[in-house]
Amino acid sequence: MDSLLDTFRAQISPAFVAQHAARLSEREGGISKALAGMAPALLAGILNRADDPAFMAQLHRSITGANGGQSAPTLPGVVFGAKLPAVVHALAAYSGTRTTTVNALLDSVGPMMAGLLKSRMSQENPDARGITKILRDESNSILGTLPTGLASILDLTVVATPETPAPQPHYSDWLLPLLLLLALGGGLLFYLKA
Predict the structure, then answer these.
(1) What angle, rounded to 10 degrees, do the helices at 99-124 and 4-11 form?
(2) How far apart are CA 162 and CA 125, in angstroms?
(3) Burial degree of 141 (CB within 10 A; 0-12, 13-18, 19+)
(4) What is the pTM of this model?
């Protein structure tokens, strides 16, 4: 199954980008970059607060529409709360777009991301714990694509689990045999000249 970020990226077509660029009077590159930063920002914001039962219950109600007839707050509003203006400014700086553009894009991206989470929850686990499990399983890709500066704005306490790096060749693996070979060649040349 594709990750949430991969699924989100698949929904962002060139036509979607072009339509929003024309409507918001921005460059397509700026729109693409803003969208690329929004998804990990939203998911990292949720992941960071996954241990807060009240937040997760509110998020679950917002995603599933179970608000007892009340209008549901937008996903970015639920996730970022009072930090929303700072997140908007950071995403605007990251993408080279205006803050009004980022706000308009968040209005489109919020329902898309809520739909993705709702769909994934229905496939795996239909309660708030399902969101937590999904995001923890994908935390490395989420945090690895988070735009610079947003981690500090979001006060992220979760960190990506470092991938085990591929072993790097050590100089001792090839240097010592090379030096021995050179010494042997030098000794042979000295012996032949003498």
Answers:
(1) 120
(2) 27
(3) middle
(4) 0.75
Question: Rounded distance, CA 63 to CA 50, Å?
Answer: 15
* Helix, strand, coil % over all residues of the chain, rounded to 5: 75, 0, 25
Closest CA to 116 of 41, 43, 26, 183: 43
pLDDT in tens, the chain (194 residues): 688 899 999 999 999 999 999 999 999 999 999 999 999 999 999 988 888 888 888 887 778 776 554 455 688 888 898 999 999 999 999 999 999 999 999 998 988 888 888 888 777 766 667 778 888 888 888 988 999 889 889 888 765 555 545 555 555 566 667 777 888 888 888 888 86
Q: Which amino acid is at 107?
A: D
